[in-house]
Amino acid sequence: MRFARRLEDRLQALVERSLHEGGQPLLNPRLDYRPEPGLLEWVALVGEPVALGDRVSRLRRQRLNWNLERGELRLDSAGLLDALKIPGWHQEARLADLEAFELAFYERGEWRQTPVTESSVLGLRLRWTHLGRPYEIVVRLPEVRP
Hints:
The chain has 1 helix and 13 strands; from the N terminus they run αβββββββββββββ. It is mostly beta strands.
């Protein structure tokens, strides 16, 4: 499935990078998990270089967004890491007809529903049901490089 492959590629390209919005630092962890409203954000080194002002970068913000009420799972990206406003997100991949979704973090030798500390997460397990079929991916996260 293309969605699963794209998501796995983006997670395996995780890097540690601080972000700014509105000129202020966000103090973001490498994995920013917010179960309500159903968001997981990170920075990844992916894709073709994009011109950002006077420089070029392959770094992009990534956002996995799930909404069971709408039955949707989306992977979005944004090129601006240090935005003066809220960044403009671009849809990279989308699954409609999502019936179930579960995210687990591998940390300290066990799978957890929420991470104790985002910096010690070694892997992610994502399970979902789409059109009656179960899917699962397990991603070993890279050792991060600032």
